[in-house]
Write the structure tokens for this entry.
Amino acid sequence: MEQTLIDYLDKFEEKLRKNLLKLATDRKALDGKLLESDDLKEFWHRIEPNYMADAVPQIASYPTVSVAWALYLGLGAAYYWDSDWTTYSSTAYETFYGDQGFDNMDDHIVRDILGLPLESEEAKKLVTLIQTLAQEAVDMIRHEQIEPQSKMAFYAFARACDAMFAIGTAIQLKRMGYKFEKMQ
């Protein structure tokens, strides 16, 4: 990939991350900082090709779902990271599937991994937040006026999924009580 394209995509992803972080912070899901873990980044890079194989065919019909599910994966991976990463670090991507495969991964992660009843206020609030963040990601991709189904569209989508996974891990880490603290 040529350097100007990489630079463009880096700037796009940085702007998207900032916008998503601001939205999540405005809704009290984050505190203005992106909580991260190298373990979780490595996990995403391992499962990302499988995710993309599932998500890309969905883009035309379900663009927000295609990016939102990356955030759900971030939530689930962060939960596993906190509970027993030695066991879960090698978990297969398909473990995150619901009983209908990719189609209901969201419900499976919220209900079966995070342990939130789908009809609970906490689950509804989380789902609404994710829908808002996913719509922001899709809107930003569209704002770039990239030719649909082009190589550039694929790269922008992949970067949006990277950002969504990172936001998902940060949201779940905060939900579990992690935070940045100054070292003495």
The chain has a mean pLDDT of 94. The two ends are 44 Å apart (CA to CA).
